[in-house]
Amino acid sequence: MKTRSPPPPPAQPAHRPVLVVGASGQLGTRIVQQLSAARQPTRALVRPTSRQQHLRLPRVDIVHADLAEPASLDAAVQGAGTVIASASALAPLAGSRFATVDDAGYAALIAACVKHRVERLVLVSVPATPFDAKVPLFAHKRRTEQRLAGSGLPHAVLRFAPFMDTWFALAGLALATRGDAAPLTARPWPFLQRFMGVVGGLAESRGLLIVPGGGDRRHAFIAVDDVARCCIAATRHPAALNATLAIGGPEAPSWHEVADQMAVVLRRPVQVVGTPAAVFAAQRLLMRPFSEAAANFMALNGFAAQPRPPESPDAAASLGVPLTRVADFLRAQAARPA
Question: Which of 312, 310, 201, 214 minimizes the C-alpha distance to 262?
Answer without folding.
Answer: 201
